[in-house]
């Protein structure tokens, strides 16, 4: 990671076995259903090749027709422990999965995108993690 960059992070603890958490986090049919920070967003397309060197591409859209594509390539995949990826513009994101007495804590640490307020990016990430936790709890 670039030492000059301020990193943002968010985390959530989910009460479920690590196998289920990993499956729900990485399987496209699940990602389509939880990968949004709020009801104003939806994920309409997911490709996810979960292996070192594999690529991912999530198309995210807002109800009013906006949106973006979240894509990149995994540079490190340790099943049930870590997913590290690099986006086309060189930004890195690292997700770690820690099994605790209370469940599994997922922590996402990422380099913020230039030109977008950091607080907005942090809130977006935290919102997605909360949605993931809620989704796992319901299914």
Automatic annotation (TrEMBL):
Q: What are the residue boundaries of the Activator of Hsp90 ATPase homologue 1/2-like C-terminal domain, all occurrences included? A: 16-125
What's this protein's name?
SRPBCC domain-containing protein
From which lineage does this chain's organism come? Answer: Bacteria, Pseudomonadati, Bacteroidota, Chitinophagia, Chitinophagales
Q: Provide an example Pfam family for this protein.
A: AHSA1
Taxonomic superkingdom? Bacteria
Recorded hits in SUPFAM superfamilies, A to Z, give:
Bet v1-like
Spans traversing the lipid bilayer? none
Q: Which InterPro entries match?
A: ASHA1/2-like_C (IPR013538), START-like_dom_sf (IPR023393)
Which family, according to the similarity comment? Belongs to the AHA1 family.
């Amino acid at each position: 990671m670039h030492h000059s960059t301020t990193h943002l992070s968010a985390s959530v603890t989910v009460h479920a076995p690590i196998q289920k958490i990993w499956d729900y986090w990485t399987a496209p049919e699940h990602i389509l259903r939880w990968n949004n920070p709020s009801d104003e967003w939806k994920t309409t397309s997911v490709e996810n090749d979960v292996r070192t060197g594999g690529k991912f591409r999530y198309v995210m859209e807002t109800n009013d027709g906006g949106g973006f594509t979240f894509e990149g390539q995994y540079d490190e995949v340790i099943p049930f422990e870590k997913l590290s990826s690099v986006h086309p513009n060189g930004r890195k994101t690292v997700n770690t999965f820690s099994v605790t007495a209370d469940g599994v804590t997922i922590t996402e640490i990422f380099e913020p995108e230039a030109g977008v307020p950091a607080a907005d990016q942090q809130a977006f990430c935290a919102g997605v993690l909360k949605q993931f936790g809620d989704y796992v709890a319901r299914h």
